[in-house]
Structure formats: structure tokens, C-alpha cells
Amino acid sequence: MMSSKVNNLVVLREDPHRKTGSLYSIVFSRSGTPDASCPPESQSDQKETHPMSKYSKISLDGIFVPPATPSFADLIAQLKTDTVLKPARRKDLMSGLRRVAEALHRTPAQVPADPRWLQPRLARIAPAAVGITTKTWQNTVSNARNAMVACGIVSKRQRRVSDLSPEWRELWDMVRASKDKSLLNPLPRFIFFLNRINVMPKDVRSDHALLYLDAVELNEISKAPRATYKQAVMGWNLAINRLPAWPRQRLEFPSQAKRVMLPEKDHAPGFITDVDRYLEMRMRPDLLATEERFNPITASSAATYRYMLLRFASHVAGAGVPINQIASLEDMLQPAHVERGLRRMLDGNTGKTSASISDIAGLLLTMASHLDLPETTRSALARFKSRLIVRDTGGMTAKNRDRLRALRNPGVLGRLLRLPEQIMARPLGQHRFRALRTREDAIAIGILLYCPLRIANLSTLEVDRHLHRSGKGLMFLVIPANEVKNNRPLEFELPPHLVKMIDEFLASRAPILCTPDCPYLFPATRKDGPVAANGLSERIKRRVLTEIGVEMNAHLFRHLAVMIYLDANPGGYEVARQMLGHSSVSRTISVYSGLETISATQAFAAVVDKLRDGV
């Protein structure tokens, strides 16, 4: 075995800043000399006048990686000189390091052999994205980890009973004697960890489990640390029920989120009534009213506004205003109350405005106008809106552009386009429920590829009401205007292969997924009615990531549809508008005009290539 380059030291110290509520954190210190590959600043760098300018050139990617941490290239060089490992094993370990680096889109010299740096990055890699199977990826990561073990970066997991104190050895013997797999799987590593940090069994608390999570995150590079932590906590609590001599204190999980939204029952009844009355007025305005008219809103918009208003009232209450003092919309819209609620939202966003803060400020001002509140109130709310506004610059987010860019690879796009039929061609096998759910995902993806619907419309499709048959093999997907966000009807003719897939799925889904007379194309699992929109969207996202290796939510299919069409038909915004159901072509242009940039630059590059080649 080679000598270790890295020595890990476990230290307990008070950590008052830990948000999970733990009193201590684990510190794994690494010994070593400063990284010689980072030269001192040059004289020109030292002449910079702005105090922060010298930091602008530093990459934050590895800012928390200890300076002396070796790279994968260092490990490969070390393995080449190893005389203990067999040549074939040495080759596998070096291959694992190289392939992991390739999956990270880096050279081995650019990958630090640091488990904490590696763990979250490897967790984000989908095997399909690098063109390999899940099993091959697991073997690759295992080889990389074993290479780190061989070089002393990660300690081999060795558990010897003789290492345990008498108190822990007694409990360990109980667990082994029970032969209970629900205890034997999660508890061994947890027991040895607690023994290692010198905690007596009677003194174990939830904070020690959080320390265990820290340790697993640091020393594991491929598994799910949080799942391991949760299994340990549940295993400990299960042992209390199954082993009479087990310590009796139960371990708890920390709260995962700070509650902002108050339960509806906590609000004053008059406030809820006022909110619902206002939204009813917005959905069904009086056409003959003498006051200023406003355009009606859809039921989905009303539901969004209701959520926003109840959440903002919760912020006002959280800022110190007694909830019983918010008995009406007028009470909530008092400038002093609005300011306190907005300040609390800003405090929760590091003092910066955001789209959601801007939206609520705009909604409150609109309501003040509709409710004919005093001019002083409207002026104050207008001032808040002007200070907090986030202007819509149009176009897609950088994240969506990045995800679409991956689909410009013809191979990746082709795999996505063929995915629904490939899934449908798989045999159902013994696990029919799971297989049919997978086919349901395939139908959803197939529809989105040809009909770029919003997820709210996709999830509520009804077989007889929205899928219209006309002649042999013809099927149209028809959604009436009153069910569409912008009140415009949608109609698509489905291609024959998709019609065949839908018919095959409908013929096989009952009674495993639903009853034979279920009206919904995508039924909910445990209740009558359609699947929840968010649930279906998450399933589509997971399916595409698993099968194709691309992060793609349901809404991104709308962007993909426009990208495909504009690539083939530059300037074809009117057709794109009709596909998406936008009310105006200007909206379509504002969102998607940038998509043609790549096509334009490719066309320009082709012209340059012809001139260079003398054509």
C-alpha cells in the first residue's frame, strides 16, 4: 500500500452558525504544503487600484478545496509507479480516474481528488448524458474511488469489533444477533462512527447524527449521503422498538424549511372572505358597471393570486402585525403593513428584490386601484412598486438556454424524439404497474413533442373530451379556449404512430392504473381525478434525465418546439405563435428571437468556410 498524501483528523468544535441546529460540526483537516501551481501575483496584478479586482481572476469552482490536494493526474502518475497492484487492476483504476474526469468535462489535471468537491458534481451526472449505462457508470466511479483509496485519499471502510468500546460492542453484538436486515444495513457504519468520536450510547443525540452526515458527505463520492443519514436515524429509532436493551432516546430530523405560509384557518375569516370576493369580481367583472372596467382573469390566475395574497398576509403577520388585525384586504393594504411585509420578503432574499417580490408589489397596487383606496395609499404602494420592480427583459433564462443547447446535438435530440416509441416497445414484464407508469410517461413526452402544451392542460386531458377521432386512424387534440391560460383554443392533429401508442396504452392500463371507465388520460394514483400537474412534470423531468441524460422539465418542450421550427423556418414566428397559443406575435418574438442567433452564426460560418476554400 502506498503512503498516504492526506491525513484526516476528526475534531469536534462548537459551530454557532450551522443552520440545521447542530451544536457541533466535524472538521477534517488536511495536512500539506501550499500548492506550488498557484504563483504569487505579478507586479502588474499588484498595481490594480480597485480592492476587489485582484480576486476577479480567481475561479470559485475549487475555492474550498485545500491547496495541497492532489489532482487525478497526480494519482495517475502515482499509480503508474505502484509495484503492489497487479497491472490489470492498475489499468482499471487509472481508467476510472480518466473516465470520471471526462464525464466532468475536465482533464485529470483539472479534477481535485477531494471527496467533498466530487460528491455533488458526480451526483448531477446522468449516465445517459455520457453515453453509458448506469452499471458502467457505477463501475467507473467505483474504480475512481478505489484509486483514491490506493493513493491514501479515502480510507478503506474497515470495521473491527476490537475497535469498539465495551458499551458499543454490547450493542453491536445485539444488532448482529438479531439478524434483522432493517438494522444490519443502516446501523453498522453509524455505530462505528459514534464509537470513533467517543460518544457513549446513552449520550447519542440528533446532533451526532448530523455529524455523521457531515462525515459521509466528506468521505463518500458516489452514494447519496443524505439517504445514508436518514437510514441511520430511522435504523436507530427502529432498534428502540425491536431491541429491549437499546438506548431509549429517539433521534429526530431537523426542520427542512422555515414556514412562511400560515394555514388558512389562522387567518381572520373576514380576510379570507374579502380575498375570495375580490377574486370573484376579477374573474366575472360586471359588464354594465359604471366604474372603470378591467379584463377578466382565468381561474388559474385567480388561484395564483389567492396564493400570493395569503402568503403576503403571512409575511405581514410574521413581521409582527397580529393576524387578527388583518381582517380585510383594506387592512392588509395599509402602507405601514405593506412595507413591513415587503421588508420581511427582502430580508429573506438577502435584501434584494426578485421577480416574486416585484409581482406582489404590482398586485397590491392593482388591488388598491380596483378597491378605490385613498390616493395616499395608492401613492405609497406605487412608490414601493417602483423601488422593487424587476422588468421583464423578454427571452428565455440562461438556464433554459443551456439546457436547449444540449438538444442541438443531433444525437441527443434524436434519442429524445425516439424515446416514446422505444419505451412503448419494451415488454411489460412482471412489474406491470411500474411498466405502465413508464408507458404513461412515454405518452406524455410523445404528446409534448408534437403538441407543446402547458403542463396544466396536459395533466388534465380527458380521453373523450379532448381527443377527437375523425376517420380511421385520425385523432385531434382539442382544448377549448376557456381551459387555456390566455383564453385561446388549441388544436393539433396527432401523428399516426402517436395515435397507435395512445390506443395501445389505453387498452392495457385498466385495472392496474385505473378503472376501465376512467375519463383521464393521466389519472392520479391514489384518488379519483387527474394527476397533479407538478407530479407529472417531475416524472417527465426524471424520465428524460434517466433515459437521455438531459435536464428537461415539461415547460422546456415548448421552447424546444420553437427551436426546432425556427431552425427549419427562420423568421416563422407566426406559426410558432399559433403552436404555443400566444395572443400576439410580438410576445413570441420577444421570448424566442435569440434562438435564431445560432442558426445565423452557423450560416455565417458556412459562408466564411466557402470563401476560405475558394468556392
Explain this structure.
This protein is mostly helical and 615 residues long. Among the domains are: 264-388, no CATH class; 398-598, hpI Integrase, Chain A (Orthogonal Bundle), CATH 1.10.443. It is 53% helix and 4% strand. The chain contains 27 helices and five strands. It has helices spanning 43-46, 72-80, 87-103, 115-123, 134-150, 166-178, 181-184, 187-196, 206-219, 225-242, 269-283, 299-318, 329-332, 335-347, 355-370, 375-388, 398-406, 410-425, 432-450, 455-459, 463-466, 496-508, 533-548, 556-568, 573-580, 585-592, 596-612, and strands at residues 8-14, 24-30, 467-469, 475-479, 490-493. It has a three-stranded antiparallel sheet with strand order 3-4-5. It is globular and about 90 Å long. The chain starts with 7 loop residues before the first strand and ends with a helix. Residues 1-58 have low confidence and may be disordered.
Secondary-structure blueprint of this entry?
Elements: E1 8-14, E2 24-30, H1 43-46, H2 72-80, H3 87-103, H4 115-123, H5 134-150, H6 166-178, H7 181-184, H8 187-196, H9 206-219, H10 225-242, H11 269-283, H12 299-318, H13 329-332, H14 335-347, H15 355-370, H16 375-388, H17 398-406, H18 410-425, H19 432-450, H20 455-459, H21 463-466, E3 467-469, E4 475-479, E5 490-493, H22 496-508, H23 533-548, H24 556-568, H25 573-580, H26 585-592, H27 596-612
Antiparallel strand pairs: 1-2, 3-4, 4-5
Helix pairs in contact: 2-3, 3-5, 9-10, 11-12, 12-14, 15-16, 18-19, 19-22, 19-23, 24-25, 25-26
Organism: Pukyongiella litopenaei
Protein name: Site-specific integrase
Domain Tyr recombinase: 408-609
